[in-house]
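Case study 2.
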Amino acid sequence: MALVTHRDPQAVAAALARWTAGRAGVDHVRVVGAEHPSIGYSSETVLVDLAWSARGHDGEQTHQFVVRLAPPTVGTFRDYDLAPQTTAQMAAAAAGVATASPELVSDPEWLGVPFIVMPRIAGHIIGEVAAFDPWLASLSAGARAHVHEAFVGAVAATHRADVAAARGVPERDNGAELDFWAEYLDWSSGGAPVAALVDGLVWCREHRPDVESEPVLLWGDVRFGNVIFGDDLVPRAVLDWDMTSIGAREHDVAWFTAIESLMGTLLGRHLESRQLRHPNVEEGDVEGLLRKHLARFRAVAALRRDDDVRVSDEQLRQRPSRERLVVGDENAHRLTIHQLAGFRRRRRPAER
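Prediction:
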């Protein structure tokens, strides 16, 4: 759900200008522009352009920033703690993931609440429905495959991050994950959740995997629209870490495939998949694990979206064969899992 209340962007920009003046060691920082992006779902985002003259240099230079902070009223989440998502991005960056180099400002002097400031990064952002995105559609089949593989590579690199470097990021096993979303479901519905969602949660508890997966750093909101791609088709920044945590990698895979399946089913078009194979990928234990449990994790993903899971519940009560794991273009999602398994397998030290 998009945010419906916002702060005055000029007030946010003025506060950032004062903070920047102290950081840059200059007497005056001028606000050139400030606005909210066209849409926002969880944290409030303000785009700010500032200009100042650096000491020893003639003329002003304009600098573009992005400010993220908790919404001024009730938002998508009950609690907004910017520290974990900042820490997660730093840990991911150390593992080779392109991030926006966020800096957490905890001092309430400037805006009354903590905020994150980042340099604004130019590039291509795929729309809410990737299959209809004009930039993606303008690329050749091979280029679209490259975009997909680079995207999968970013997810895999996130999962390879040093968990110890992500101290403060919440860690949840599968049971704790279900408890977390059960509490969220109760809170977001005012204590009256949709019956189908309650039934879906019961099903998830009854079909929780017997074996816990290796805990890894999770991005949380794995979507094409949360990545800025350069003209070279390489991710320049992975964005929106509000739902980051440490847990089973299947959550990230299921979130991405569930969203793409939902959009494809509703709109009648799915991502092209014929060109998505990654070279030098071998079948392996990680891929088998992801396939084995993906159906169960996709049910959790549906609950996280607060979608009506009655269709998923009906499907998942059947024996979860590969054909029943996803709706729509199963080949694209199978290959995504295949690639994630391959990316990880090729970097396991014991196999080098």
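Residues 9-119 form a domain with the Phosphorylase Kinase; domain 1 fold (CATH 3.30.200.20).
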